[in-house]
Amino acid sequence: MAQNQGSSKYNLLLIAAAIVLLVGFVFWSIFFRSDHQSKKVVQQPVPTVQPTIKATPAPAATPDTSPSEPTPTPKPLPSLGDSDTSVKEDLSALDSNLVSVLVNDELLRKFVRAVLALSDGNIVQNYRPVNSPSGALLVDDAGQIGDEHQFTISADNFARYNKYLQILLEIKPHSAARLYRYYYPLLQEAYEELGLPEKSFNTVMLKAIDNMLSQPSISGYPYYADAAVSEKLHQPSVMYLYTDPRLEKLSGVEKLKMRMGPANAKKFEAWIKKMQVELQGMRF
User: Fold this and answer.
1) CB 238 within 8 A of CB 136
2) Residue 164: beta bridge partners?
3) Distances (CA, A) of 105 to 53, 82, 126, 131
4) Cα 22 from chain centroid?
5) What is the rounded CA–CA span in Å between residue 104 and residue 203?
6) Which of 268, 242, 284 is nearest to 276 (CA)?
7) Which of the residues 128, 131, 167, 234 has the least number of beta carbons within 10 Å of its own beta carbon?
8) Whole-angstrom distance, CA of residue 201 vs CA of residue 112
9) What is the mean pLDDT of the chain?
10) Which helix (H) or strand (E) is 148 found in, with range?
11) Which residues pair with 143 in a beta bridge?
């Protein structure tokens, strides 16, 4: 997996710091043991006359003239309009498969648009940073019920999200949060381009996370358990709709979690909760 120059310098800095700590620990251990051994009581005859011992002055310290290691400079942020290459390299360092599901351009601007939609409980349909799963919604035939033909979401449909979930779970939330902080000035810039009243993009981000963790406000119906309401679908036109109006009124985020399936939705929420903790501790 290729890493960018900034990441390589960061790794070299970590290695150098580890070596310094290790050497320091070895010297500390030697002197600590010597100090304790010198304090052991040794029985010796007591001299009748104490000799006078003149203190010998310690030699003057020789200044260290060895060249010091240069401090690695952080990788400068690109401009917002030229950030795609840098963003893809850094995302690839998190997971080499991540780039395969991304769109080609304007990644940060599209990420901001997607987060803004999620903060309202919606899923952005256009101008999105991630490609949609291939194929259409997979359904099972539930037969004729009353005056219309009905369907249910097929378990095979859940597998359409497996690749996305696997990539997400391979990424450590702490690493993702660190990359988010690094690119935050550009994310804030892209958000300010929209001219919205909320000043902080991070506030919008945290609201989006709250929505991703939200549960349907239907009594007795958690999306990941057996339904207390009908999950049947019908197709009055091109789109499938829930026959139960309570489900049809759910937010786009809640419907997405239903489409990815109970097991996938639980794993998705567990990761998002960890990311939430990381971002809540940040100050911008």
Assistant:
1) no
2) none
3) 80, 10, 13, 12
4) 30
5) 27
6) 268
7) 131
8) 8
9) 77
10) strand 148-153
11) 150
